[in-house]
């Protein structure tokens, strides 16, 4: 007789294979490491994998990548925003679309807008663009403002660049097919070691003619017309250690988008979503969820 009614009696005379064992929990399949993915294999759609703390339905974040990278560069953000629906589209000429022609910033913005309209059922998205992705995001605001609830732009050189920078850009294109060039670039971006080979493999796949066309358009500078049709909040950022033309572009962007908040990210370079993902993610979350500016960001020093 059992001492406690809830104890389980095991027949020790029964064969071992007759004793029922609890089933092992089913493990989720291991998520491939970034280094295990090919340069065109990173998904564009990432469904939320955890519930929001406030109990509300997941919202949508759209990340637009820079010009020497592809959508896999947002991997640290995809992991951090598992309570959001996250879209990481390939821009034309990059990643899985490296065989396509670059048709201009306006065309890329229309492409992104069509992607958003196809994938998002209702409500505006929170748009985040860095470098080339920031320039594309500006065009999305101008051409499709109804799709966007808020925006974060970083590394946008809207003023254009000088002749020296243009010449350096042309020199870079001449080095496009050399792996050491891309490995050097990966180090300057602060990229983790498991992503450096992926970065080099992808860089070699960017067509030089696309690179030239993009550089020509980006180096010319300027902001799109009709930015005033976008009435939502905008946070515009520059890394303290990236080229000064980015921070010097603040007044030009502010003239077209007067509701913008401008801040400098201390100690960070151009591609700081990779260099310091913890700060980048906290900055985006504070802005998107509360309209707050992260306390580590600084106003542009007065002249």
From TrEMBL:
Record's signal peptide? none
Looking at the record, which segments are called Disordered? 1-53
Q: Where is the composition biased (Basic and acidic residues)?
A: 1-10, 25-39
**Which molecular-function annotations from GO does this UniProt entry contain?**
catalytic activity
SUPFAM superfamilies to which the protein is assigned, alphabetical: alpha/beta-Hydrolases
- Ranges for the AB hydrolase-1 domain? 61-280
Report the superkingdom from the record. Bacteria
Check the record and name the PANTHER family matching this protein. HYDROLASE ALPHA/BETA FOLD FAMILY (PTHR43194), PIMELOYL-[ACYL-CARRIER PROTEIN] METHYL ESTER ESTERASE (PTHR43194:SF5)
- The protein depicted here goes by the name Pimeloyl-ACP methyl ester carboxylesterase
Lineage, top ranks? Bacteria, Bacillati, Actinomycetota, Actinomycetes, Micrococcales
């Amino acid at each position: 007789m059992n001492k406690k009614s809830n104890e389980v009696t095991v027949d020790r005379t029964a064969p071992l294979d007759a004793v029922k064992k609890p089933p092992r929990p089913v493990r989720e399949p291991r998520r491939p490491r970034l280094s295990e993915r090919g340069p065109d294999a990173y998904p564009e759609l990432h469904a939320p994998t955890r519930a929001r703390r406030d109990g509300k339905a997941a919202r949508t974040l759209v990340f637009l990548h820079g010009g020497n990278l592809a959508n896999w560069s947002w991997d640290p953000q995809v992991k951090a925003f598992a309570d959001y629906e996250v879209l990481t589209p390939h821009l034309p000429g990059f990643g899985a679309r490296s065989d396509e022609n670059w048709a201009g910033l306006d065309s890329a913005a229309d492409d992104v807008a069509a992607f958003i309209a196809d994938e998002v059922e209702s409500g505006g998205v929170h748009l985040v663009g860095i470098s080339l992705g920031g320039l594309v995001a500006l065009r999305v605001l101008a051409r499709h403002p109804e799709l966007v609830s808020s925006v974060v732009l970083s590394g946008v050189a809207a003023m254009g660049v000088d002749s020296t920078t243009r010449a350096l850009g042309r020199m870079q294109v001449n080095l496009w097919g050399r792996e050491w060039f891309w490995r050097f670039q990966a180090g300057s971006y602060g990229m983790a070691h498991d992503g450096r080979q992926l970065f080099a493999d992808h860089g070699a796949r960017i067509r030089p003619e696309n690179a030239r066309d993009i550089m020509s358009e980006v180096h010319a500078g300027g902001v799109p017309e009709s930015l005033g049709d976008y009435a939502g909040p905008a946070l515009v950022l520059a890394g303290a250690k990236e080229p000064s033309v980015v921070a010097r572009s603040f007044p030009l962007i502010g003239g077209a988008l007067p509701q913008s908040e401008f801040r400098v990210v201390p100690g960070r370079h151009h591609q700081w979503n990779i260099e310091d993902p913890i700060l980048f993610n906290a900055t985006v979350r504070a802005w998107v969820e509360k309209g707050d500016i992260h306390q580590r960001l600084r106003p542009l020093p007065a002249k």
